[in-house]
Amino acid sequence: MTAQYDVAAIGNAIVDVIAPSDDAFLAAEKLVKGSMQLVDEAQAIALYGRMASAMETSGGSAGNTVAGVASFGGRSAYLGKVADDQLGQVFAHDMKAIGVAFDTVPLVGGPATARSMINVTPDGQRTMCTFLGASVELTPDDVKPEIVEASTIVYLEGYLFDPSEARRAFAKAAGLAHAAGRMMAITLSDSFVVERHREALLGFIDGQCDIVLANEAEVMALFQTDDFDAAAAQLGARTKLCAITRSEKGSLILAGQDSAVVPAYPVEKVVDTTGAGDQYAAGFLLGIARGLPLAVAGKLGSLAAAEVIGHYGPRPLVSLEALAKAEGLL
User: If you ran DSSP here, which 8-state letter would residue 2 be given?
Assistant: First the structure.
């Protein structure tokens, strides 16, 4: 059956609040530079009050990825939980405005829509404090068969691996996808996710996943080693296809006996690394969904990552499709 969507993603529906910062502010707030930590709603409100003037944009890792797919001219859908509140309405409007199918029923009478407070230092590093709110209330009932079965690739966000109901939703999506002959992909999301759920993630990768995306730190944490080559080899042996990003070193793609080393696209100035991995995933997954060679899929990912780190915000500000065509990639 011909797919209606190139990529459907399941993840935390989050509104990003992004502000410039410096190392002194991080130290005063006792925040570890470059990290992501969970906070409650009161902490999020208090931190917001102390941050510099901020921009607000619909985000969430997997949400950013399908936004990138749409910018490439791809067909994408999103499954994620927001509350029936103002930020939830903003999130839904933003997704639909860029052409992403999104109709998950909002949560009524529970926690507020999730938001991530992101402080960006002059070197482009982002330090995140995230209130998960309604996003972790996703249940298997929110996984719509008509979306999963109509998507070439179903992409799961590792950040959602914590709540038991969300993990059940992942299992349901995997069952539906494989029964329909679709591919399952997951991103490891963050080293802290790997450290919390290492054994469960390995089991899920072994039994349910066709594609794994990770960065250098995450894959080494997954296999508890400081040897990148050894960790990459182990991941490559456990999955059909994996892509590992390495910041300015580019990315490594492994698919059985095939592999590709893809250089990073040059960037005049790194402004904000928020969304770099998400946009790499957008280009890479779109390339795989369209049957492009591994190296071309990786170049699409690198191109998207380079665009997004050149400005504030986790989503592209220009057409990724136009950039890709100018580079001869699409």
Answer: -
Question: According to the model, what pLDDT value does residue 1 have?
Answer: 64
How far apart CA 243 and CA 279 sit, in angstroms, is 13
Tokens of 105: 């029923």
First to last CA, the chain: 24
Q: Is the CB of residue 117 less than 8 Å from the CB of residue 47? A: yes
What residue ranges define each of the domains in the chain, with the CATH number in brackets?
5-13+61-106+135-326 (3.40.1190.20)
318: its two tokens: 């220009």
CA-CA distance, 8 to 18, in Å (whole number)? 26
Residue 28, number of CB atoms within 10 A of its CB: 10
The CB density around residue 238, as the number of other CB atoms within 10 Å, is 15
CA–CA dist 323, 82 (Å, integer): 32
Q: CA 88, CA 80: separation in Å to the nearest integer?
A: 11
Contacts of 325 (CB under 8 A, 6+ apart): none
Neighbours of 24 (CB within 10 A): 9
Q: How far, in Å, are 22, 248, 254, 259, 300 from residue 293 at the CA level?
A: 41, 22, 12, 10, 11
Which secondary structure element, helix H or strand E, spans residue 29, and what is its range?
none
- At residue 161, the pLDDT reads 86
In this prediction, residues 227-246 reach a mean pLDDT of: 97
Distance from C-alpha of 33 to C-alpha of 49, rounded to nearest angstrom: 19
**E strand or H helix at 151:** strand 151-157
Helix (H) or strand (E) holding 102: none
Do residues 166 and 135 lie in contact, with contact meaning Cβ atoms separated by under 8 Å?
A: no
Look up the pTM and report it.
0.91
Separation CA 199–CA 192 (nearest Å) = 13
Q: Are 128 and 37 in contact (CB under 8 A)?
A: yes
